[in-house]
Amino acid sequence: MSDRRVTVRKTYKLFIGGAFPRSESGRTYTVTRTEHAARASRKDARDAVVAARKAFPGWSGATAYNRGQILYRVAEMLEGRRAQFADELGGPRKQALEQVDAAVDRLVWYAGWSDKIAAVRGTTNPVAGPYLNLSSPEPVGVVAVVAPAEPLLGLVSAVAPVIVTGNTCVAVASERAPLPAITFAEVLATSDLPGGVVNVLTGHQAELAPWLAAHMDVNGLDLTGVTAPELALACEQAAAENFKRVLTAAQDRGTRRMTTFMETKTVWHPAGI
């Protein structure tokens, strides 16, 4: 038997409903001279929305503490694959490792907000009558995210605040450098995150973003990764059809990324009875 063997090359697929399917169209596009990524179609986008909607009741119904634990577990798994992600990011080694570390820290930061955001955003409202009036934030539902160009940190910065509050997510990865996003999906798949909570599509931004913006079962839209003004405007106009919440201003981190995709529920209750 020969000592020489053929190296098993990695195939980069989509991440939908906790599985790694190829694009239903069979299309790929060139990322580097030797690597290709699946080019998602609008059918793949619809499948991802269906998976996200199916996962929403269970994920939004989980305790905030549990969601925070799972995000922390994602950070642990990412930390354990630090060297692999640095290799995939490429460039100067020190800068690549710093990007991975920043992504880990960002996950831990948002995990810490899981059981605090309701206290910060919720309130007891003064009313002129024998009633107790309480307002509390709740997730809006399915959020479509067009991730910023940074292959790993941009995706983490967009996805983590969406899901920590109980939303589910369909993310369009960086078109220029999508491969770390799919490897990050492998981290999600082994981190106790229920299938369908995060779905990752690779492909052309101009092809996928308008369909997600116009989808009637998508409740929120993060366009921070869209750099073309014409595409951003078209997506905002399509999103208005069913009053999606839209985030356009880039935010490295902060509560705005969480609160944009939350809605306030107000409850009235008789007092003194």
From TrEMBL:
InterPro entries tied to this protein: Ald_DH/histidinol_DH (IPR016161), Ald_DH_N (IPR016162), Aldehyde_DH_dom (IPR015590)
Q: Which domain of life is it from?
A: Bacteria
Kindly state which keywords UniProt assigns to this record, in alphabetical order: Oxidoreductase
Q: Which Gene3D superfamilies match?
A: Aldehyde Dehydrogenase, Chain A, domain 1
- Cite the GO molecular-function annotations of the record: oxidoreductase activity
Indicate the segments forming the Aldehyde dehydrogenase domain, all copies.
32-247
The protein's name in its UniProt record: Aldehyde dehydrogenase family protein
Question: Can you name the source organism?
Answer: Nonomuraea rhodomycinica
